[in-house]
């Protein structure tokens, strides 16, 4: 296995925000992960690619608490962590946006951004009567969307069911960015989107990186990966086949490594 690092050896001396070492996960006789390591550094987009069954989803689920690895270690800011459920990862600052988005169509944009983390009114209204601060949440929602440069969602009171696919994706990503203080994980964020909406989501990924939030991007779309990724982690048959960069390898090279037609 060859690991290419971006911009020389500078990456070698930095502490990863999120790191996995030799993760193993089995399902009976099926090996999902076979000693996989991964490093995510500050302010970068790390793409994770691989054919179906390569272990991409298993790896991400281990990193975000959906699965508990059988062996191996996970570190956050250099400290060992043990996630037993997704809530543990979220509490540590790792937010994940899955393909199904997990948004509530009947609720408006602001309510979806604060879903499960509703802000209550100050004083007795919030502490005793548990009244939600709708005005405050809508104000914060507008500020969050503006900070991410999301101009297609001007009205945060619109129900999500009235939004396009790209706009719904933007809501889910904005929610992750609002609470993902350490890492944002995006699982196929442009799947089933048109060209224009896909481009908007990719711009959103770049803005997250520009704000210093490291992103793990899982995608089958090679042009999208090579457009936004700083480094590319390639999974094959439950192992890390290589970590490359768009500068060191072409899309053809990446596909060849992913399919086993070539070694990195």
From TrEMBL:
UniProt keywords, alphabetically: ATP-binding, Nucleotide-binding
What name does UniProt use for this protein? Answer: ATP-binding cassette domain-containing protein
Write out the GO MF terms. ATP binding
Q: Where is the ABC transporter domain?
A: 18-262
Q: Report the CDD domains cross-referenced here.
A: ABC_Carb_Monos_I
Q: What is the lineage of its organism?
A: Bacteria, Bacillati, Actinomycetota, Actinomycetes, Micrococcales
Write down the PANTHER family for this protein, in alphabetical order. CARBOHYDRATE TRANSPORT ATP-BINDING PROTEIN MG119-RELATED, SUGAR ABC TRANSPORTER ATP-BINDING PROTEIN
Gene3D superfamilies recorded for this chain?
A: P-loop containing nucleotide triphosphate hydrolases (3.40.50.300)
């Amino acid at each position: 296995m060859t690991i290419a690092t971006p911009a020389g050896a500078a990456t070698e001396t930095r502490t990863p925000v999120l790191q996995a070492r030799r993760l193993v996960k089995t399902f009976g006789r099926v090996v999902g992960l076979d000693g996989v390591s991964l490093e995510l550094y500050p302010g970068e987009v790390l793409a994770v690619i691989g054919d179906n069954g390569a272990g991409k989803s298993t790896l991400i689920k281990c990193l975000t608490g959906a699965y508990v690895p059988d062996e191996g270690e996970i570190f956050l800011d250099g400290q060992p962590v043990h996630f037993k459920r997704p809530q543990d990862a979220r509490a540590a600052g790792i937010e994940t946006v899955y393909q199904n988005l997990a948004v509530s169509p009947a609720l408006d944009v602001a309510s979806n951004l604060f879903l499960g983390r509703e802000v209550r009114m100050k004083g007795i209204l919030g502490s005793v009567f548990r009244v939600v601060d709708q005005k405050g949440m809508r104000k914060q929602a507008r500020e969050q969307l503006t900070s991410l440069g999301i101009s297609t969602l001007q009205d945060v009171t619109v129900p999500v069911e009235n939004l396009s696919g790209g706009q719904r994706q933007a809501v889910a990503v904005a929610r992750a960015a609002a609470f993902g203080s350490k890492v944002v994980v995006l699982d196929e964020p442009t799947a089933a989107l048109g060209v224009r909406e896909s481009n908007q989501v990719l711009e959103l990924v770049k803005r997250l990186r520009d704000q210093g939030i490291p992103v793990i991007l899982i995608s089958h779309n090679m042009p999208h990966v090579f457009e936004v990724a700083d480094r590319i982690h390639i999974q094959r048959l439950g192992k890390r086949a290589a970590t490359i960069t768009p500068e060191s390898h072409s899309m053809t090279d990446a596909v060849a490594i992913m399919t086993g037609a070539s070694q990195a």
